[in-house]
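Hey Z.,

So I finally got round to the nicotinamide-adenine-dinucleotide thing we talked about over coffee. Here's the setup:
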Amino acid sequence: MIIKPKVRGFVCVTAHPEGCAAHVQEWIDHVTAQGPLQGGPKKVLVIGASTGYGLASRITAAFGSGAATLGIFFERPSEEGRNATPGWYNSIGFTHAARARGLYAQNINGDAFSDDIKRQAVETIRRDLGQVDLVVYSLASPRRTHPRTGVVHKSVLKPVGASYVNKTVDTDKGLVSEVKIEPASEAEIADTIAVMGGEDWELWMNALSEAKLLAPGAQSVAYSYIGPEVTWAIYKNGTIGLAKNDLERAARHIDSLLKLNGGGRAFISVNKALVTQASSAIPVVPLYISILYKIMKAQGTHEGCIEQIQRLFSTHMYHGQTPKFDEAGRVRIDDWEMRPEIQAAVREIWPRVTTENLAAETDIVGYRSEFLKLFGFGLPGINYDAETEPHRLMP
Ligand code: NAD
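And the result:
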């Protein structure tokens, strides 16, 4: 089968197996080029390990410090004649590369919110690893079936309290328009907190703790976003921001649990806005990212997921370093994004962006190529006109 991109709004419904493996290899090469991570993690559980920040965390742990990794994700496998979602191919690519280096790499594909997947993870860690010294929680999901009540909670990306009007871009068509989003109801706020808040992270950590699978001094990190004022109504002060506040509440609770476990810690790392499958679904944010990329690339400070996580691990978590927290106890690896001169440049460009000048004023071209790369397209060295087999089994 010849596999080409088929973009539908903010998703691409196809994915290229060799392209995804090449993308994973680029990330591996970046981590390898930075040299070994002194005192890095050795046995790592990554929840949300197949794409974006979770995949970057897994690669940094494995190729930065030779960690054994167990990856949890929820991807659609391939079938005869039908491609998988990219996270499936990424995980195959990662697993081959890690095992070729002699590293343990195991995967569980299923709903991380369920008791069943937690049980499978507990059994796998007990059998294969004994204990883990790092747990990365990097889920981004539109829904969660609650394991106790069976209720299906759906998250929404909406402002809270008042409607919100701002510019947005259809990244596929290149159209800049105004979007008006009505405020969330109380039920929608509660649902979004149930999906993207901290309860599930706490359930994971409690399950691991009860099974005595957390090594003394074990750490855990989950990811959040704050961003500039132009996105606050839809992000920081919106439904997702309230869910992230709950994630911070959970971080404090898990931190006290881990402190008692040989002086470990849990914390939130606030990461940079980047093109991922999760962020492309948020209104307004892709336009902000397109402007941000242009400015940060010009300044030489642009980073992707892998650069962000490699910097998190090497300047806050390992390599003889300890986390440097902001006033709210969070690590800020979004520090370069939030530099005043970067944000001043965004504020200057923002009001004048139109459909007509989109290509000149923003890095929409870079946005699109990053987006396609998420699905394995546009990687050097891949012949996209060649036949390829979409059906691939997890090794
Ligand atoms: P992503 O969409 O690339 O990755 C999400 C991961 O979660 C995938 O591995 C997916 O398989 C997994 N997943 C989703 N639902 C699942 C389920 N029910 N069970 C098991 N696995 C499931 O997302 P991302 O952008 O890397 O986001 C990861 C975290 O980083 C989120 O907390 C997000 O808020 C945060 N973050 C993202 C950005 C950004 O700009 N992308 C910035 C800062 C923080």
